[in-house]
Input
Amino acid sequence: MRFGFHCSIAGGLSKSLDRAKALGCDTLQFFTRNPRGWGYTPLDPREAEVFYFRAREMDLRPLVVHMPYLPNLASNDKLLYQRSLESLKVEVERCKVLGVDYLVTHVGTSKGKSRKDGIERVAQALMEALDISGPCILLENAAGQGSELGFQVVELGKIIRIAGRDLRLGLCFDTAHAFQAGYPIHTAEGLEEFLDEVSYWVGLECLHLLHLNDSRTPLGSRVDRHWHIGEGCIGLRGFKGIMRHPVLKDLPAIMETPWSLRWDKRNMARVRSLASKEI
Output
């Protein structure tokens, strides 16, 4: 299993590579731009080229980009939906230039409107984005806050089916979100039930990435609060079961735990220990 963190690009794209290596990462997730705004600066060709080749020299793989927070691909507001679609297309293009393998996106919210219509809007947006040759787009399961779509595996499966089961579409399994959505993945039985749902509605071959996050809120809370590995409600035993599961043990894993240099080092040491067959 290759482990990494979501690292900041403050100071330039390549700074995320340096931060990842300093933490002992094998893989890396980052934003290509400000995640809390719509505007962006076009990629500098020279900077992009340096990033592309340095990432390969440093053997950081796969490279993962997370979509900004503002886009809502399920929105029934025409203007917001169009801005969200354009944002997705822009991100696909940026990922292509940087040699990124996976683009992770949240599904969005239906704002109290028909969930079925929201699912169809997301699928349509994905089909348009996939017309651009770029990275594999991964749908991240949600915690289920408010009217979030995608906290149930069946909804993610419907989106992928409507989008034509394109091989460039897959899933990012966020452990905290699944737990918060009500899946008891901290137990062996609960993890099997979750993976059985993935197998039935989506296909295990569509699982490409793990977001390893403990949960600060209890099972089924539908409140998204990430916490340090083994320090939350999923616990050390839960993560040991997740990381050693035959279906998951070879997937790349990104941690999105609250930032702290001391805790990042502790989290990295902990997941490597838990994944080891020696304990």
Q: What stands out?
A: The first strand starts at residue 3 and ends at 6.
